[in-house]
Amino acid sequence: MESSLRVRRFEGLPSPDEFSSEIEPANVAAVFHGAVKDWKAISRWNPSDGGLDYLEESVGSSVLEAMLSRSGRIFYGDIRSHERVPIPFSTFITSCKKHLQNLDVGSSFEAQVCSEDSDLANSDIPGELYVAQVPIMNTERNERCPLETLTEDIQTPVFLGTKTLASINFWMNMAHSRSSTHYDPHHNLLCVVSGCKRVVLWPPSACSILYPMPVYGEASNHSAVNIEKPDFLVHPRAKNFEEHSQKIILHPGDALFIPEGWFHQVDSDDLTIAVNFWWKSDMMSNMLEHMDPYYLRRILNRLVEKEKNQMLHESFTGGSKFIENYQLADVASEDNHEMDCCKPRDTTKENSRRHGILQQLEPFALHVLYELVSLVHNTISVDNQNGSTESTSKDPCSPDVEKEQIVKDNPRLSEIDTVANIFSAVEPLVLRNILLGMVHHFPRTLEALILHMLSPKGAEVLTRKFDEMDQQIMKEEQCEFYRQFYGVFDDQFAAMDAILNGKELFALQAFKNVLDKYLGARPDQPNS
């Protein structure tokens, strides 16, 4: 967990200016101990001290919607697992009184606090009602607020004084319950009035490991992962969910600021009562609707670039192993063989000049060139001048090999990433010298390498190396390199297309990964 994402804790209350300028913009969760300890509700609503009678007298006649879970005491956001049912609040209070009477006589109600080892998922107790998100005040929706009279017992925390609140909501559960992992579309201040809540938090950056539900679904803000019993075969990225999580325990009077987009799972002890405040963030409030398509494209572009970097990082082991194998091998003896095989066999002035390029290569660069040439001739079928297939054991540095015609209808070997791993292991200027060596000595091999063996990942790595190279050499050197490189190809535009098409295919895969990781959308699956 990055230190900048650690939950902050405050014993004193910040001023409105401090909250608005320092705490809220950081978009990091924060705990304010004792923030609402002076609310009248702390004493009036306390179930162990007549609070249930008080609530019944104050709002018992109100009919409100409660969540009826089909999955025991775990309340999921998906409407398939619960339903909203109208119920007189007095009926719910009566059930709470019976539950309070059934609690162990030997332990005081105040002593029943959330345990770090609570195992709700293994409980055998049947499904329960949960009075969840019942509005005390709501400015976003033109709807009745059945518990409006309870506003007399609470006060908006001072540091929220400048905020335009979207709603104030009442939450109450009878027995130990859990809300599934989800995020809210608003900033949230969760205040515990009675009982205890244990909250597990994940920052928005952990979205991909929590497998969000499809963005087009009814429960789009919920995670598909069962945190209690995760199935790593179905959700392999979830293996790291614990190291990205933080656990907070809230007691009566405490308040937790949960920024928009932060995933949270909440366990509530028996007869826990809470009030939360929702308000729009400044960023969302200031976003102009006509700019949404632009913002969407910009954010997707940023996520795709991040995903491309991650894809290359995860697959770079091939390049590392290539270097290790070279270093562990008897380099001296192998280099002598490679350099012998590539020594000039023609004493003409032109060939001597061209072979001088090979002789200028460092041993590692010469080794890479040899590997690339061998890879091409060992992978792609070649026809010799007589129309027979050459043995893969044929000396790849032989001048005769360079006269062989590459079979044009050979399928693109898009799954082979050996070339990409080799490119990854080589510094940009070293790669330039290697490619120039192929330009002068193995032009047809270079053509086959680019047109027939360059995978999407290889195209991405190659263009990145080109970009790095351009930053290290003069403009004139850049132009001369690309003139020689593309001059090898009978159709220079076909070579450019092969590289750019591969690069775009790599980006397309990254885009699909982004849709899966962050939007829960899997376009390749028929039922997505």
Automatic annotation (TrEMBL):
SUPFAM superfamilies: Clavaminate synthase-like. It comes from the Eukaryota. Residues 145-294 form the JmjC domain. InterPro entries: Cupin_8, JmjC_dom. PANTHER family: HYPOXIA-INDUCIBLE FACTOR 1 ALPHA INHIBITOR-RELATED, LYSINE-SPECIFIC DEMETHYLASE JMJ31. Belongs to the JARID1 histone demethylase family. This is JmjC. It comes from Musa troglodytarum. The lineage of its organism: Eukaryota, Viridiplantae, Streptophyta, Embryophyta, Tracheophyta.
